[in-house]
Design brief:
mainly alpha, 67 residues, 2 helices
Length: 67
């Protein structure tokens, strides 16, 4: 089974959320950094990136961890 580009982007966003959260917990996050400052997006899936998708994944991850 091959992942679709959207599924790959969701994985990249999820990883970004995890890294962001760890850096935030350790107080190692550079000033003025937000969840939208994802820097490493593979070119072949960049077209799948949107603020709405980041928000949707973030909301899902947040709700899944609070349950």
């Amino acid at each position: 089974m091959t992942l679709s580009n959207k599924e790959k982007m969701i994985a990249v966003i999820s990883n970004g959320i995890a890294v962001f959260s760890l850096l935030q917990e350790r107080d190692e996050l550079p000033k003025n950094t937000t969840m939208y400052d994802l820097k490493v997006i593979p070119e072949d899936i960049k077209s799948e990136l949107s603020v709405e998708l980041i928000d949707e994944v973030f909301q899902y991850v947040t709700s899944a961890h609070s349950s």
